[in-house]
Write a sequence for this structure.
RNA sequence: GGUUCCGUAGCUCAGCUGGAUAGAGCAACAGCCUUCUAAGCUGUGGGUCCCAGGUUCGAAUCCUGGCGGAAUCACCA
């Protein structure tokens, strides 16, 4: 469906040429939706043309308005107000739009184009800590972004990069070896990621104690004390053994990581996120090493006296960056260089998006510049979706102060709140236990997901665990409820056998609420494109809220099935049906399910 | 200190590729269920859009400089 806005813009261009003898670039034509409190569908801002037309804004607007009305059959009328030119399209135009959009399978979305796929990396957990609220934002953003990109017409692959190697992993392993007595998730009835996380905490606690003692006996500073503590030495030894593929160490590493993955899987499943491929740093860092050494050979990088390898980025306004340690072992960025290459080889993507917190902005700058030094063809394909931190009322989450909001706990809370609220409202008679549980899950997760996704990704956001997430107003359940309401109407229409009957547009007199709804529905495809371009699920969230609000206003003022005029009733049914479809499609892009009843 | 991001109603957030009188939700107060689901709808109050300059016919939006907050500047990840 070609957009009417594009047609108007072309006609405005012609009008200016014919009426005023001036050429104008289409990009300088500001055509926007007319404000709701003013009559009209589209508004042309004419102020910028006044220099060319040498006439007053009002006169210019009047002339262009007359020209367009004459040359475009879709335009019914226009009015000039304070130098703004407001067009109203023909009734028939909107009726046709409603009918056509209703027939589409997935109105608003575009079938994915395989030619230049997009790879979205998100989640990227460490295997020594359970997932918390910060990871939830990451996972929801990543999953939603991938859905949006796919809906906007890009084949999209979701990938995860698991940080499963390094000194931190050795810490939990060491603690478990020393004090675990062979404890397993089965023996302790703990989730695997929680169990391993507990040993990490145990290690850190013991290390702090040792370091404190050293500070007193040897007068070390904090850093020296930590580095010289026997536990730290042992952890390093373990890392050396791991890198040397010591069979015993490797076996424990595999076992413990296996526990963590099973724990993560259950959290991911509950969150409703998934991946097309999982990369492991324990694999990708080898590729990274190789590329860095190749770069060294080609003089893209340089070696210092101690044998360490560096990238000199001082000409790019950055600093020197270590890529390989003197002993040949790799650092964080080494594996990212390798991962980028592997990903490029796997998918040949037009875009590689990294959903990673803004605390790593500098890292991604360095990564891009380093890849540029290597003259990698995919350098410019990298995009960092840098999102803000989730803060608590007391500030950042700190594991030491026990203020970390655990992902599983939070989902439990949401479920309980959803159950309590739903049971109090008492609308679920006739639901089976299974249906009830599913509904509580859908509503609880809907509230949580919407709460997080409605905020602009790049901004820090505040989460107050004391004031539990609302179910009224600008929330997920409000939108879910609107969907359920519409579905209820449609079920009744199906019982009456009128659900698919068409209406006669000529006999429909449209009211303002209906008009607002149609206009909002019309905007949907553009919103999807904007959200994809801006990498912002918040645009979808805010759009679908507006749409739901508009429907509720319409629903309050007018009846669909009890409307005596059958033709108007059928029209409203179509309008409601399309609204429910758009709500479902949009919510799907946010990873939020919508219930048939609630 | 350098760099990047943020600063809009009591609180949480929209609006930011410049356009008409700056919007929602929550909280407060006042209404609306014999009619398709009241998790809804309607109304009232609530603002130096951090400050100061600049660009422009027009600035919450763009530029410069302050102020305030966050992140980062590792041989951690």
């Amino acid at each position: 469906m070609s957009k009417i806005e594009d047609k108007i813009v072309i006609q405005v261009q012609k009008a200016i040429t014919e009426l005023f003898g001036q050429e104008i670039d289409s990009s300088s034509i500001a055509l926007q939706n007319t404000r709701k409190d003013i009559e009209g569908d589209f508004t042309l801002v004419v102020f910028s043309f006044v220099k060319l037309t040498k006439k007053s804004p009002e006169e210019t607007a009047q002339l262009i308005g007359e020209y367009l009305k004459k040359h475009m059959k879709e335009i019914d009328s226009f009015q000039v107000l304070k130098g703004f030119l407001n067009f109203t399209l023909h009734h028939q135009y909107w009726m046709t739009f409603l009918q056509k959009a209703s027939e589409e399978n997935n109105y608003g979305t575009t079938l994915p184009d395989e030619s230049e796929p997009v790879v979205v990396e998100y989640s990227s957990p460490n295997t020594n800590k359970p997932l918390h609220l910060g990871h939830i934002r990451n996972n929801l953003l990543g999953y939603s972004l991938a859905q949006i990109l796919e809906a906007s017409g890009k084949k999209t692959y979701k990938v995860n990069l698991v940080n499963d190697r390094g000194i931190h992993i050795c810490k939990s392993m060491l603690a478990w070896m020393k004090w675990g007595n062979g404890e397993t998730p089965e023996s302790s009835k703990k989730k695997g990621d929680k169990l391993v996380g507990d040993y990490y905490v145990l290690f850190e606690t013991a290390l702090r104690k040792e370091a404190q003692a050293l500070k007193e006996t040897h007068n070390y500073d904090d850093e020296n004390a930590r580095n010289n503590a026997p536990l730290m030495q042992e952890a390093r030894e373990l890392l050396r053994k791991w890198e040397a593929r010591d069979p015993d160490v490797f076996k424990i590493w595999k076992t413990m990581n296996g526990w963590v993955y099973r724990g993560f899987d259950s959290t991911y499943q509950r969150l409703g996120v998934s991946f097309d491929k999982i990369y492991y740093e324990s694999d990708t860092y080898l590729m990274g090493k190789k590329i860095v050494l190749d770069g060294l050979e080609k003089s893209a990088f340089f070696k210092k006296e101690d044998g360490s390898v560096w990238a000199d980025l001082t000409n790019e306004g950055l600093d020197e960056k270590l890529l390989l340690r003197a002993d040949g072992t790799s650092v964080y960025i080494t594996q990212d260089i390798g991962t980028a290459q592997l990903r490029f080889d796997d998918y040949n993507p037009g875009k590689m998006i990294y959903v990673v917190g803004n605390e790593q902005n500098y890292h991604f700058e360095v990564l891009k510049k380093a890849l540029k030094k290597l003259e990698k063809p995919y350098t410019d394909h990298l995009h960092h979706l840098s999102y803000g931190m989730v803060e608590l009322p007391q500030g950042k989450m700190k594991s030491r102060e026990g203020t970390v909001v655990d992902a599983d706990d939070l989902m439990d809370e949401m479920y309980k709140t959803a159950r309590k609220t739903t049971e109090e409202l008492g609308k679920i008679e006739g639901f089976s236990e299974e249906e009830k549980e599913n509904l509580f899950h859908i509503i609880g997760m809907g509230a949580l997901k919407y709460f997080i996704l409605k905020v602009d990704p790049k901004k820090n956001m505040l989460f107050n665990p004391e004031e539990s997430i609302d179910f009224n107003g600008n929330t997920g359940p409000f939108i879910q409820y609107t969907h359920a309401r519409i579905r209820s109407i449609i079920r009744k229409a199906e019982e009456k056998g009128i659900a698919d009957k068409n209406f006669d547009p000529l006999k429909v007199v449209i009211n303002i609420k209906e008009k607002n709804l149609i206009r909002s529905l019309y905007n949907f495809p553009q919103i999807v494109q904007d959200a994809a371009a801006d990498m912002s699920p918040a645009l979808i969230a805010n759009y679908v809220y507006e749409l739901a609000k508009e429907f509720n206003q319409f629903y309050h003022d007018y009846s669909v099935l009890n409307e005596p005029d059958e033709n108007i009733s059928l029209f409203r049914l179509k309008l409601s049906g399309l609204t429910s479809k758009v709500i479902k499609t949009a919510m799907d892009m946010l990873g939020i399910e919508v219930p048939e009843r609630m």
